[in-house]
Amino acid sequence: MREQALAVGYAPASAREGFAALLDLDHQLASILQSTTEPMIGQMRLTWWYEALEKLDREPAPAHPVLQRLAESVLPGGVRGVDLAPMIEGWEALLDDGEALG
């Protein structure tokens, strides 16, 4: 996480909050692979995130800090939740390969 804080510090001031929110999302998705021992459970959790990101385009962000942060600092810049959802697919590929399960 120190590397991420350093990277955020080098981002332009106007982009820092959004960049940090995207890194938070990536960290949240990585933690799914790190904390699950059953691929099906990991897939269910990733599917929840996929759907939650897509819903950001039509509903207020739910009471999850990462989703709220994305809604506040990334979406106003013109990025849609549906644009973020493909991040999930990258993590699904790692899950399918058995990367870092449990």
UniProtKB/TrEMBL annotation:
Cited InterPro entries: Isoprenoid_synthase_dom_sf, Squ/phyt_synthse
SUPFAM superfamilies: Terpenoid synthases
Domain of life from the UniProt record: Bacteria
Pfam families, A to Z: SQS_PSY
Name of the protein this chain belongs to: Phytoene synthase
Species for this entry: Sphingomonas sanguinis
